[in-house]
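PROTEIN DATA CARD
Card holder: Putative MFS transporter, AGZA family, xanthine/uracil permease
Chain length: 497
Origin: Halogeometricum limi
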Amino acid sequence: MGSARTEDASSDGVRRAVADFFELDEHDTDVRTEALAGLTTFLTMSYIIVVNPAILAGIEGVKPGILLDGFAPGQVQQMLAIVTILAAATGTFVMAVYANRPFAQVPGMGLNAFFAFTVVGALGVPWQTALAAVVAEGVLFLVLTVTGVRTYVVRAFPEPVKFAVGTGIGLFLAIIGLQAMGVVVDDGTTLVALGDLTNPVALVSVLGLFLTFGLYARGVRGAVVVGILATAVLGWAATAAGLAAPDAGLVTGTRTLSLSVPAVGAFDLLVPATGTTATYDISPLAGAFTAGLAGVDVPTFLLVVFMLFFVDFFNTAGAVTGVSQVAGFLNEDGNLPEVEKPLFADAVATTVGGMLGTSTVTTYIESASGVEAGGRTGLTALFVTLFLLVAVVFVPVVSLIPVYASHIAVVVVGVLMLQNVADIRWDDLSHVVPAGLTIVVMPFTYSIAYGIAAGIVSYPLVKLAAGERGDVRTGHWALALAFVAYFLVATGGVLGA
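Structure generated from the sequence above:
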């Protein structure tokens, strides 16, 4: 009896210590809720374990990327899967214990394509040098974060842009998810169109989506996780029962991923959701950035660092602001208190990721799925870290969740984030224009950074035209001019020269 009481007291002491460290009571949450939120975020973002290696790994004569002598592309992808997990776990752990925020960190989509297709492909930069640029960008971020410069820039965002980011990201998430589910497809005339809803993947996805919405509307805890798992099981069952052909994509989740990234254009990449086995020796990748510093072409290197820096900076700022808006973290001015802490975690993650052998790591907008599930503290991020570390052992099992099933959470969260539009002052035209452009441009250009750019550039111009010059600070003009310079570089043929 005495031993049992001692164990109970010890267990209660641990729970109390955890609650105090992560300030669970202050955020009106508990360990169970944070664990469920962590699982939700992990399931939503787990596709990156397969997709990031598929984008970064090169195939001789087929696609640019990381090529290793003596290793087949599949083996390189296996190494990159482990590196992806380790880089994500490092950044997310720092986010958990230092920033105490429920944000996950993983290699960013779009940034990985920019790395492989533009830097290594179009510019012909060796992949080792490209990794060195990622490390340089991360170190630059660390310096700017520690000195407070990065925080100043984020706070210099115009108010309407801050409050529009959440809604813009919501639309961005929705189109990403619907595309993965086969509901939205490419169209040569209208750019996008409704997919064939009789297609097995699309049909199962739609059923799973409405199931998830129904569970969420009824207030079922863990509705998103239940929806993801139920959809995956439904797909497997339909194939096993002979209702769909084995090659329909329900089991593997194979799909064609179409992305538009800065200065790359559209590309199609076959992404299998299964078949990845772990290769734990990552020594050919880890530390390879040091070799990339030898004989580097300085002007090209600085240009690459600048482009990575710019896109990563505003992607991260947008994701942090948007997810924080969903969580209710923003103050009345639209600022996130102690924003330098999550920015620091992001900088550490990018630096470590480049050293290990992956492209830029950033705060993931899919973190909003965990926030919607109730996650409010770094304990959510700590659970994500634990799930990531477990995934190192079970990489093939993790990838059994089909892409279409995991992206149901992306659509659900995207729709729910549209509620943030209520925070915008729609009765003030000088707020409507920058906020509206931020929301519209983000999904249509497939870029958080471009959406933020449209809002930031338009804000001082509209304020000036409205005769409200006093509302515009020097920082607003500086950011606007910086984005104009960025677009001249990004779209003016410099990168493709």
